[in-house]
Design brief:
This protein is α+β, with helices and mostly antiparallel strands and 419 residues long. The chain contains 11 helices and 21 strands. It starts with a strand and ends in a 12-residue tail after the last helix.
Amino acid sequence: MSEIRLLTVDDIDNAIPVLSNAYPGFPIESDQDKKDFREALTQRINDDPNLDFYIYLRDDRILAFIRLHNFTMNLFGTKILAGGGGALAVDLCHKKEHIAKEIVEFFFEKYRSAGSPLAVLWPFRPDFYVKMGAGLGIRTDFYKVRTSAFPRGSGKENIRFLTIDDVPALVDCYNRYASATNGMIDDYVLDRQIKFKRQKGIRAIGYFEGDQILGYMIFKNEKNHATNILNNTIRVTEWIYECPAALSAMSSFIRSQADQYEWIAVPTPDEDFHLFLTDPRNDSGNLHPGVYHECADSTIGIMYRVLCTEGIFRATPERDFNGVNAKVRFRTRDSFLPANDVAVTVHFKDGKAEVQDSEAEYDVELTLDISDFSSLIVGAVRLRSLWNYGKIELSDDSRLEQLCQLLEVQERPICLTQF
């Protein structure tokens, strides 16, 4: 007999082996590792209202674990509840027994019942979650370029290293950026403080105007050579700037490190980032056919899962669908959540969406899988691309241009939250 229930402090010691074995890259093996993990998890359980930990038990034995986040996400200017799933771990002796599927079903149903129209996750295997209805987000490019490729900038006078005392100001900066950026998830001080204490070898700089941080960069040192202490790489893990002045100052900081850091590795969802650099070529030296210089590794990460097709339209009443007037019936095929395997009719009036009853008239029916709809409705993929790939069906093909205009977005979703 199996059950899924909240993790308690008394369960932690029995949960540790499941987590440690499932994620060998993050070992919890020594007594100190276990002590640190126990203390951090106890603090989360007792003090963090934005996190829930669940365990899957069979015959009173813990066989799996998941961490669920109650996120506040900016979706086209409206803050919505989004469920986040992380640290899904299954006992190695009980893999391929559909335990992960049961936990993900629980995760999705929990947030659907709570009125959340959307779930987000970082996939260990994207194809696994596509089968469960999740759609891919935008790509992130990982650059590794010379520090001398950054512009000289405006100088470093307003930059200094950050300490744990600066966490509230850093979170304020992050949340201002999140409020102005589609897809971003709000941060909070407790989470940052715990991460600040636990992460080893991490440094952070901030750009200040008065007491405000208007940009920051979190990074660590990476040695390139066993004996040459002057041959290093700056490995950036997070970088935010609210204004050109902050970017310019941090660019000055980066360029000034060239004597000890020849390279800097930077992840970014910015499709135009290569235009900021004086030389965007990476350290591979690869030249692809047609004289294409390699500049970045392209990756996929965050995935989105619409839990309620009707709810995703109701959750963003102020979203402007580009002023288009149209009556559209969305038929999203959803075999994983049968309650969401329905057709939803939406009337768009001057770009504003109004969900109608099931018998309402419509001009065109758009049919697609829920995974593709999830990517489409958050702005991670263009409708025309789905059409070109043969992933959508229209009851009236002459309406394609109108629908492309309706669903076109200026801001594709960005997510910097790791969970």
